[in-house]
Amino acid sequence: MEAQYIYIGLAAAFGLFMAWGIGANDVANAMATSVGSKALTIKQAILVAAIFEFAGAVLAGGAVTSTIRKGIVDTDLLSGSPELLVYGMLAALLAAATWLLIASRNGWPVSTTHSIVGAIVGFAAVGIGIDAVQWGKVGTIVMSWVISPVTAGFIAYLIYRSVQKLILSQDDPLARAKRYVPVYMFLAAFTITLVTILKGLKHVGLEISLRDSYILATVIAFGIALLGAVVINRIQPDPKAEKSQHFYTVERVFGVLMVITACGMAFAHGSNDVANAIGPLAAVIGVATTGSIAAKSSLPIWVLMLGGAGIVIGLATFGRHVIATVGKKITQLTPSRGFAAELAAATTIVIASGTGIPISTTHTLVGAVLGVGMARGIEAIDLRVVARILVSWVVTIPAGAILAILFFFVFKAVLP
Amino acid sequence: MANMLANIFGSSPVRPLERHMDIVYRCAKKLRPFMNAVIRRDLKRMTEVRSQIEALEHEADNLKKEIRINMPKSLFMPVPREDLLELLLVQDKIANRTKDVSGVIFGRKMKIPKQIAPQFMEFVDRNIDAAKQARKSVRELDELFTAGFKGAEVALVTDMIEELDRIETHTDEQQTVLRSALFEIEKTLDPIDAMFLYEVIELTGEIADMAERVGRRLELLLS
């Protein structure tokens, strides 16, 4: 009986560590543009990120968590020896964390999602048997890793082209921006709220009818757009920093919009990435408390909250530094460009979260930035780094898998 | 961790290009106090301004090298990398010509004949105007990138380049007048001095020529 506490304790510790790492490193991507462009101070950014990461994790993190928990490994094969799933999930967590640590030491760009999925597939295929992996589902996930950055890039391209056409290339971009930015706000808030209500909330036990979902999303989005419009109308051009096209002030208008898309991005990030930390934990808890593999057992909400809390702690301890560093490096992502990238990425991620597909939020955002670049929006993109990301994309999966296999056999030998 | 998002951004050449043009203009502008000193035969002031011109030209040169280093082939940009490098090169030539003019005058301790001095100063001024207009146009680079090289901003820059062309044409006319004025008095001058005066007029006129080529390069970016 004591063994179950060891399992849960270990899984919770590893899971918290992963969540901490996600909060310390990855959240910066969502908030850095807002800080870099001075739309938010770093304190405000951390506060906003903490709220929306947590909300995303708890409200919309359920579907992806259950995929990580029981969608990759065919748990039916394990009903005779449930402890194997416990060892495996512990091994996967430790493998992913180790790989992330090695990668960050060497400065390799690595995705948390790819590490954990690679690790789970690894321990299941080698430790249990090739048939223990639900290859169909894994195939879908891997496909989505290609599709999600491409989709985000395409959406970002369209959004930014519309911004250029409607606002930036016009005679009076400032007046145009004040008119159209609230529309983008509405769209951003509407999409993210709607997907969350439709796909996420049922994991929290809330059921809202389709019609009510649309009405609720519309009302919320309208409220946000209205609030945004009020703030925007108070922005006055600064004659000192200005040239004839008022782009400086136009960017300040977009800065207000970017606060909203950054919230959306933090929410989306929380909803997808929390699973990387707590999906395996949830699996361990499921087995340890019931003593068997109960595929039907529901996900305790406190697990999601633990993951959300871990992310917030990571954000509070190291996130500040990372946000500041990243913010300084991405000044090319001005609010008019940054919002397009964030909105495209957040929409793609939230849809993936709702469908229960673990994707790399950072890759999706990078794809979105490239999309803005295709619309002649970014001054200089370093293609060498894009190539390096592609390489790490491929390398991470076997690396996570090999480490997980090692740890799996160690745990199998050592743990009771 | 190596942050993916932060690292995909190469260093943008846009602001540095604008900064480079600022330095180049500050250099070209020094030709006015320099020529004034030459006409007044104020050797001390000449030496002083000459070294300022050299320092600015040097600064522009260093920035040019830095910008080139930060523009590797792997950069993906909205406009061809070659066009930006060409722009940088012609910008830099404005400072080079300024240095050449002051160098020839200073090195040979040249004097500007009183008869053509006022016309000469006007000519210098107009060449500096051309450099100034080139700077004004280059300063729109970041707005051009923001606007995606489309629409109202493009029209704005096109107008600026047209003005630049007008200034350059004016310097050409001045140059012809100045040369014939020099021709009228050349018999009264030392032959070698006269030859070098023609040379200085030619070099000075190239400042506006280079400024105009800055405009041509910008125009290429717009098309």
Question: Please, could you describe this protein's structure?
Answer:
The complex is a heterodimer of chains A (416) and B (223). Chain A has one domain. Helix content of chain A is 79%, strand content 0%. Chain A has helices at 2-25, 27-36, 42-60, 62-70, 83-106, 112-128, 135-168, 173-200, 210-233, 247-290, 301-329, 335-355, 361-374, 383-414; one strand at 381-382. In chain A, helix 8 (173-200) packs parallel to helix 10 (247-290), helix 9 (210-233) runs antiparallel to helix 10 and helix 10 runs antiparallel to helix 11 (301-329). The model of chain A has no long low-confidence stretch (mean pLDDT 87). Chain B has helices at residues 4-7, 14-29, 31-40, 43-69, 81-107, 117-138, 141-146, 152-185, 191-222; one strand at 75-76. The longest helix of chain B has 34 residues, at 152-185. The mean pLDDT of chain B is 93. Chain B is elongated, with a radius of gyration of 20 Å. In chain B, helix 2 runs parallel beside helix 5 (81-107), helix 4 (43-69) runs antiparallel to helix 5 and helix 8 (152-185) packs antiparallel against helix 9. In chain B, 46% of the residues are buried. At the A-B interface, helix 2, helix 5, helix 11, helix 13 and strand 1 of A face helix 1, strand 1, helix 7 and helix 8 of B. Strand 1 of chain A pairs antiparallel with strand 1 of chain B, so a sheet runs across the interface.
Short description:
Chain A has helices at 2-25, 27-36, 42-60, 62-70, 83-106, 112-128, 135-168, 173-200, 210-233, 247-290, 301-329, 335-355, 361-374, 383-414; one strand spanning 381-382. Chain A has 416 residues and is mainly α. Chain B is elongated and about 70 Å long.
